């Protein structure tokens, strides 16, 4: 297999050889042009976030000398998934020189909720459902390995709690009260706890 064949986005040597780009090429470059991307999948072991991360890193490298770069918009429709992947992607969003705006559409739950909170500015459509919960974990291995895995998982949960409290106006008492259940945040709660900067009904309100 050649290097070109391994690339997810193929390189067009000449437009004379091929009149039209593939749908994948078109969508990729259109997203770059509009600075608009989507997390419309589960955050899982297939590492879909890695490909989006590469684009964000490339754009940051290209625009690191620009003082006030135009924002990147990430629309989120995700039921959640892997907390480790969500954590690294949240770090990436917050460390980005280019401001990254997150928009909740449909659902932003669990790991998807954490990613949403990382946005420089945060918007949600009227019927977007957001969920805070502790998730679940299964452990395998020797007794010592299971014990260490459980300790690490508890650290992750405490880290998640600290992150949510720091990025919202949710107080610790309210968080602890709801932490052991699936906490679906109502529209009023999204505004009250400053989870969102604004509930939007028009694209014109997103900036």
TrEMBL record:
The cross-references to InterPro entries, in alphabetical order and at most eight, read:
ClpP, ClpP/crotonase-like_dom_sf, ClpP/TepA
Gene Ontology cellular-component terms listed:
endopeptidase Clp complex
Instruction: Give TM segment ranges.
Output: 98-117
List, in alphabetical order, the Gene Ontology terms for molecular function in this entry.
Answer: ATP-dependent peptidase activity; ATPase binding; serine-type endopeptidase activity
Q: What Pfam families has UniProt attached to this entry?
A: CLP_protease
- Presence of the UniProt keyword Transmembrane helix in the record: yes
Q: Which spans of this chain does the record mark as coiled coil?
A: none
Q: Does the keyword Zinc-finger apply?
A: no
An example GO biological process term is: protein quality control for misfolded or incompletely synthesized proteins
Q: Which UniProt keywords apply?
A: Cytoplasm, Hydrolase, Membrane, Protease, Serine protease, Transmembrane, Transmembrane helix
Which family is it part of?
Belongs to the peptidase S14 family.
The entry's protein name is: ATP-dependent Clp protease proteolytic subunit
């Amino acid at each position: 297999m050649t290097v070109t064949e391994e690339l997810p986005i193929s390189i067009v040597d000449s437009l004379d050889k091929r009149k039209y780009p593939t749908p994948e090429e078109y969508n990729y470059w259109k997203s770059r042009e509009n600075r608009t991307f989507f997390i419309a999948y589960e955050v899982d072991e297939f590492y879909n976030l890695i490909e989006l991360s590469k684009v964000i890193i490339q754009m940051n490298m290209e625009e690191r000398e620009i003082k006030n770069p135009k924002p990147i918009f990430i629309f989120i429709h995700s039921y959640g998934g892997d907390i480790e992947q969500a954590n690294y992607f949240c770090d990436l969003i917050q460390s980005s020189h280019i401001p990254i705006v997150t928009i909740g559409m449909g659902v932003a739950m669990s790991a998807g909720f954490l990613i949403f909170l990382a946005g420089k500015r945060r918007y949600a459509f009227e019927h977007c459902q957001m969920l805070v919960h502790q998730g679940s974990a299964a452990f395998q291995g020797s007794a010592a390995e299971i014990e260490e895995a459980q300790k690490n998982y508890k650290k992750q949960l405490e880290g998640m709690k600290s992150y949510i409290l720091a990025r919202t106006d949710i107080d610790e008492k309210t968080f602890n009260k709801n932490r052991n259940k699936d906490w679906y945040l109502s529209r009023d709660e999204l505004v009250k706890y400053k989870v969102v900067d604004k509930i939007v009904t028009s694209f014109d309100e997103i900036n």
